[in-house]
Amino acid sequence: MKVATVVGARPQFIKAAPVSRALREAGHQELLVHTGQHYDFEMSQVFFEELRIPQPDVNLEVGSGPHGWQTGRMLIGVEEILRTQQPDLVLVYGDTNSTLAGALAACKLRIPLAHVEAGLRSHNREMAEEHNRVLTDHVSDLLLCPTHTAVGNLKREGITRGVHLVGDVMYDSLLVGLKQIEGRYALMGRLGIKEKAYALATVHRAENTDNPEKLSSILRGLQEIVRNGLAVVVPLHPRTRQKLASLGLSLDGLSLTAPFTYVEMLLLELHARVILTDSGGVQKEAYWLGVPCVTLRQETEWVETVESGWNVLVGCETSRIARAAETARPGLVLQDAYGDGKAAERLVTLLVSMG
Length: 355
What we know:
Blueprint: E1 2-7, H1 10-25, E2 29-34, H2 45-50, E3 58-59, H3 67-85, E4 89-93, H4 97-108, E5 113-116, H5 128-139, E6 142-145, H6 148-156, E7 163-165, H7 169-178, H8 186-191, E8 198-202, H9 206-209, H10 212-227, E9 231-235, H11 238-247, E10 255-257, H12 262-271, E11 274-277, H13 280-289, E12 293-295, H14 303-307, E13 311-313, H15 318-327, H16 343-354
Helix pairs in contact: 1-7, 1-16, 3-4, 4-5, 10-15
């Protein structure tokens, strides 16, 4: 079977790693298409190296830009590749513009489409990611869900055919990544931080970074945490770095860094006292690692993290951010909510049955 995998952003590299390994170990051919949505070394190339993903067969090098322009360029490029290579199936991940472009190209060419992380919903139609995931689900032939909640979301939208609960492939990757952190502890020394004596914060979603008031409020919340006596390490996403430079916002007190590699990020998450983030993947990693999480959004697709008490939603209000970080406590451990670390194996079995 020949599978065309379309990826373009850091979270998708993490998700694709165990699936790519399982596909190739089972003797199937994978055509790996990188749209170039994340294109700098810290957000792209280093992940292929660290996660041991084969180098992309094609890199469209689309880069950043407005949603319509970026998605359109991706669609043109992916469609041409699919026409030329004629795969048996197209595989897409998550909710990015790369996801939607791959899904539309497969749909137009009538190539069977499989969506990993199908069924997730924030119920916030102001998010570009929500549009991407809903549209992709409604044109997919195989919907590979990470949770029972996701299966239920699809059923409420009238989608029951081709729906399968497989678990979360990011948990597969995390179990592999944890085996690599032993040699990375020097990073904490370079950053001047000690175990459980710092907060780790990430901010990248457009709903936060593209709104000056929200971004400023979040920064003030992080700075208040510092004033309360807890160091805050902030690896800067390229979008966030660009917005901060253009707005001239105060960054006093925060430990700003370049993006970390996947394994480095796992190390810092594992030993943080609390994690603050607007990333879905980081919310889950905090949950799996047993670290309290404060989510800088009003909603989350990963409701299990909230229901179990590991995650609290605070939006972007300064006082709520600081208070939540100070009062964050461990919740209940319910790791089986996202499977057992063998999602990739189940997923590949389903792909083969479809192909």
